[in-house]
Amino acid sequence: MDSYFPQASFFTEFERFVGSLAAKGGGDAPEDVLGGLESTLDLSWSSKNRILFHIGDSPQHGERFHNFSASRDKYYSSEPRGLAAECLLSQIKSTKIVYYFGKINDTTDKMINEFKSIGGEDIVNLADMKNPSNLV
């Protein structure tokens, strides 16, 4: 059974890789989270085990998903590509993707609560990324 679990070195390497990433570009605080979820649904999920691990420090565009002012979000009143969280979260559920959100800070709280309101309490599993050992 232990062969199904990654070795400790995997977690160390994963932590090192994620720690080396740097965000750039954008111009406003929110991100295209729904676009990322859409891309996930476009993958060819051949395994029965389907896990999405989303690490984020900023919420989706739109006042519905954050507490930022309109001046901090270029798309405060609308989703830039017309994507609907309801549709995407429904597809994640029906595709049986287990969605984990690696929470870095509190700016994503409203988005996660909205996702849970839309898709049910079990749609998003939270992982507190302030402590990397939570990956285990």
Keywords:
three-stranded parallel beta sheet, 32% helix, 4 helices, 136 residues, alpha/beta, globular
Structural description of this entry:
- This protein has 136 residues and is an alpha/beta fold.
- It has 4 helices and 3 strands.
- The chain has helices spanning 8-20, 33-41, 85-94, 109-119, and strands at residues 51-56, 98-103, 125-128.
- A 3-stranded parallel sheet has the order 1-2-3, with no helix packed on it.
Shape estimate: globular
The percentage of residues in β strands lies in 5-15%
Radius of gyration: 16 Å
**Uncertain spans:** none
**If you average the pLDDT, what whole number results?**
89
Query: Biggest sheet, in brief?
Result: 3 strands, parallel
Approximate helicity band: 25-40%
Layout: helices, strands, pairs:
Layout: H1 8-20, H2 33-41, E1 51-56, H3 85-94, E2 98-103, H4 109-119, E3 125-128
Parallel strand pairs: 1-2, 2-3
Helix pairs in contact: 2-3
What's this entry about, in short?
The protein starts with 7 loop residues before the first helix and ends in an 8-residue tail after the last strand. 32% of the residues lie in helices and 12% in strands. It contains four helices and three strands, in the order ααβαβαβ.
